[in-house]
Backbone:
């Protein structure tokens, strides 16, 4: 058994090296260059997005270079990145006005958001990079429900991230659609942990509250007029 684990480790190392070599030998084409101050030092920094063909993976670009305070770092998509989340785009708060990257700025630092292709349950990959001074830290790079808003809910000077999965709809009535319970989840952006207090408060104000888990057995009425959803009681 130990020999099998060692063999698996060797094979993974070979695969990882092959992937690295493949990336180094790939020709990337710049598709967008963004000049902006990412760390509040009155000196412009640079974000460059690059495209390369990705067979079978929907998306528009696969690589990003960020230069800040004389330091340059390169980041790659797991598959490919696509356009900014539609709700964020509609809000009009993107500090750089790009259709491909979203930047949220705070005092002394910025967060860069990149998005994988959108599916019904959310994004296969969401990438979040924090730039502070010349330091760059990946805050998150994984699957995530669709981003709805980036806002400072508790007025502490630091943003929260609000995500939600689109609920499955089961039926339609004259009053609206009947669908699954799908709560909003509020993350503390700096630590990328769920803020349970703000999550409950936000759902009680904007939605309904039956816990943090998506639940298809809990039926919700989504009014036609876009009003606050209502819990449908079952016997």
Residues:
């Amino acid at each position: 058994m130990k020999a099998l684990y060692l063999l698996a480790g060797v094979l993974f190392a070979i695969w990882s090296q092959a992937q690295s070599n493949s990336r180094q030998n790939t020709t990337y084409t710049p598709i967008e260059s963004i000049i902006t101050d990412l760390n509040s030092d009155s000196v412009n920094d640079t974000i460059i997005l690059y495209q390369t063909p990705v067979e079978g993976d929907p998306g528009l670009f696969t690589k990003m270079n960020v230069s800040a305070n004389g330091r340059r770092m390169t980041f790659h998509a797991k598959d490919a990145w696509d356009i900014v989340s539609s709700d964020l785009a509609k809000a009009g708060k993107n500090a750089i006005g790009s259709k491909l990257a979203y930047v949220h700025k705070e005092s002394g630092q910025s967060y860069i958001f990149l998005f994988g292709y959108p599916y019904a349950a959310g994004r296969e990959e969401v990438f979040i990079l924090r730039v502070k001074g010349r330091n760059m830290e990946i805050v998150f790079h994984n699957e995530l429900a669709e981003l709805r808003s980036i806002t400072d809910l508790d007025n502490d000077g630091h943003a929260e991230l609000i995500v939600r999965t689109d609920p499955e709809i089961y039926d339609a009535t004259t009053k609206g659609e009947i669908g699954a319970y799908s709560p909003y989840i509020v993350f503390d952006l700096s630590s990328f942990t769920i803020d349970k207090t703000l999550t409950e408060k936000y759902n009680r104000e904007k939605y309904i509250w039956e816990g943090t888990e998506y639940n298809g057995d809990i039926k919700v009425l989504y009014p036609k007029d876009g009003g606050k959803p209502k819990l449908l009681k079952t016997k």
Observations:
- Confidence is low (pLDDT under 50) at residues 14-22.
